[in-house]
Amino acid sequence: MKLWGGRFQKETAGIMDRFNASIPFDQKLYKHDIMGSIAHAKMLGKSGIISQEESEKIIEGLEEIRKDIENGKVEFKIEYEDIHMNIETLLIERIGEVGKKLHTARSRNDQVAVDIRLYIREEIEKISELLWDLLQIFVSLSKDHVDTIMPGYTHLQRAQPINLGYYFMAYFQMFQRDFQRVLDCKKRLNVLPLGAGALAGTTYFTDREFLAKELGFDRICENSMDAVSDRDFVIEFISSGSMIMMHLSRVCEELVLWSSQEFGFVEMDDGYSTGSSIMPQKKNPDVAELIRGKTGRVYGNLINILTIMKSLPLAYNKDMQEDKLPLFDTVETLKDCLMIFKDMICTMTIKKENMKKATKAGFMNATDVADYLVSKGVPFRSAHEIVGKMVLYCIDHDKTIEELSLEEFQRFSDKFEKEIIERVQIETCMNSKVSQGSTSKENVLKMIENAENFFRRD
Ligand code: ARG
Known about the structure:
Bound molecules: arginine
Largest sheet: 2 strands, antiparallel
CATH topology of the largest domain: Fumarase C, Chain A, domain 2
Helix content: 55-70%
CATH architecture of the largest domain: Up-down Bundle
């Protein structure tokens, strides 16, 4: 007999049980469901909707069910559809008639909404901790590499010299925003839907403020139709998750490139690499590639939930049961990726010498030569032209700018004086970037200091 079987004259079709059920996946919510039910039972007792004694019996029953689930003693049944009705049925089986009172002043619609919010809230805690660890790793890597000079790229062409610490601090900024984004998402979802009933509220004098307090919500949903209808908080969470994956995919792409022989900037630890089944020499950066690949999966989840919610009329529709699959998958993928990414970058070898060597070619000091001419009164556009010609000359003569003699410099402009020789050294070029937020060591040290203040504050 179904919990809702009263108005039915026939059994549901055989295939319905499987098709309609969410228990294969929503059993993940058992803890949150029981937590919500305990708070609800407490509230019912306290408000005199059921007796104190009944309330206590229900709570005891629910606590036992939780223990049994945790000890693997419970087998969920597909014919009870979802986690809510599985637990309610178990409760009734165990404590009898009084168990049937738990669902007073509640619907599965507000029940599932509260469960998902409790679940995401808990997962955001874990994800933000992982992000926090990652931020600390970026800062510590940065500290180690304020003097590690490397090419900075645009269009993947060598552009200007930077230091690796500066590169890591760029990602620090991105992941710091991601960290703030998930916490921000928590603020908006930490509002209580329970007590909304099916869509219109209930006829009972429930105490929703009490429920909010019990369950740690900041306030209650003001409109019960909104409370049961929307999943914008799921979308917002997956969207923040997509952003995290997008950032991870960019570092990963770089690390894949950097592990190639063509770059040779890093080497992944054996523990985070794999070999080839045919080519004995291969060592592949699979972790970085997989994270890059899994980004597509999380974006897919975002489109999935956006499409489920598109055009849904108010209030609850069964379509919404499908929200959990992209949500759970996003949470698991994010946690795995953040964890393994962190281990991978902490264990990789950074080949400083190769990075430095790479700064020799590519005329990355060309802009600095132009800036030098500007300091001598040449308008920037003309200086650009002069240095362009110098680069052509260097290509023809197979030289770098820093290999030119003063006499060669002066062939292009009489403004060049002997200090130009020092000014075009790659290290000098890097550290002469004096503008705020630039790559000079001094500025990167400032960024690190700001990051450390952030760690202390939060
Ligand atoms: N399993 C359902 C879900 O996840 C619970 C809510 C069902 N509500 C209903 N009116 N059928 O969405």
